[in-house]
Amino acid sequence: MHPLQLGIDVAKAKLDCALRLASGKFRHKVVDNTPAGFKTLDDWLAKEGAAALQVCMEATGIYWEAVAEHLADRPQTTVSVVNLRDKHRLLDSIPGLGERTTAVLLAFIAEPARFENARQVAAFAGLDPRQHESGSSVRGKPRLSKVGHSFLRKALYMPAMVALYRTDWGKLFRERLASQGKPPMLIIGAMMRKLVQVSYGVLKSGQAFQPGLHGA
Length: 216
Description:
By secondary structure, this protein is an alpha/beta fold. It has helices at residues 35-47, 65-72, 84-92, 99-109, 118-124, 150-166, 168-179, 184-205, and strands at residues 4-10, 14-20, 26-32, 53-58, 77-82, 129-131, 142-144. The chain folds into 2 domains: 4-82, 2-Layer Sandwich (Nucleotidyltransferase, domain 5); 87-213, no CATH class. Strand 1 and strand 2 form a beta hairpin.
């Protein structure tokens, strides 16, 4: 069972919390940034069935320290404190990604150290290609494994279409695969995988998207 993801927007007086459920839906809760507020947060998480939890919050002054320490003491809970503004800026540099998809990507891969490499990120999203077997033959067309997070895959579909048809780097990518005889749906899946891997790359390196490294 995958842990649920909890994002916290930290302010001096309040904690704005967004919990992503296993269904992909979100629940929101605002609590006081005080010990009493932490207790309210614990009760809410228990009500939502958040036993195992991955927490991501932004480093805002010193206001994150108390709640981070409190949550780190919970069993089955990992806490990451990141500079989300910088990470948001890096993802914004990728042509094709929009505000909504950027938020989803940050919820899943804001901490790239969770993954060993870009291939592992693609597998996490269920976007790694698997050879389709028919009997003893393995000559079928490759298909996406779809073993990972369906919510993340759904969030990448429209950005992949935008990248393929409305950005220079995406058009080059599409033309290259089309020239190899790849069908349209396979090309879309390949761009979805490319987007999540490029997102991982810019977050890990701290360097903005470089068109010359992609597409052709």
